Amino acid sequence: MDKENLKKLVQDPRFISGIFNYCDRWCERCLFTARCLNFAMENEELDDPENHNLESEAFWEKIEKNLIGTIELLREIAEEQGIDLHSIDTAEIEQQENRSQEEAESHALSQSARRYSKMVDHWFKKNELLFEQRQRDMIQEMELGIEQARLINEAKNIIDATEVIRWYQHQMRIKIMRALQRDETDIEEDAIQNDSNGSAKVALIAMDRSIGAWGSLHELFPEQTDNILDILLHLDRLRKKTEATFPDARRFKRPGFDVLPLE
Prior knowledge:
The protein has 10 helices and no strands. The protein has helices at 3-11, 37-42, 57-80, 90-106, 108-126, 128-143, 148-168, 171-180, 195-220, 225-245. It is globular, with a radius of gyration of 23 Å. The two termini are 28 Å apart.
């Protein structure tokens, strides 16, 4: 995408400013894709499969054009605002970012989120046969004409719960780390409407939905009560510690999702 087309998209009033900064990246389930600049940019050439084939020349040409267009636009914006990009000490900034990331990775919240992710992998790996057996049982029951509507609904619930758990499994740790990497030097930062709280809120929403999904699996597989409760307890503790670390995160208003812009 060249600079001019990129500028047109950025200035398009139908897009909600910053909505993609505090979403869960689950575009297939999002009601705001038509108002998301990030979605529009990623899907501009969706109809051409070559633009999504990593082995095709068209894919890399598109990546290069998008990169060049973005760099040109950033330079133009910087020039308009009187910012000398060449005067910025990128080496020092990189060092600061590396230190900040290391601190975030070693934080107790990040470690707890990492532990949860491993618990999820372990549970699904250990219970592969559980899902396969339940699938066989459901197929057999449907062939016998036993409450087909109930069985279809149960199958949908299993798929939905599994998709939710897997989608948010790693995301909550990523969002927690971003929340922990708060720039404390920004003294003019809003006490509530800041990136730290926004990122923490997305992580908390991921925990809320994951807890709900695990609750569904608990009802569907009661024989897994002990194992699922261990995961739920860990996840609930992570949620409470996150809320304690970011007490204002729940009050953060995400653009579009929590508050629509004035038309």
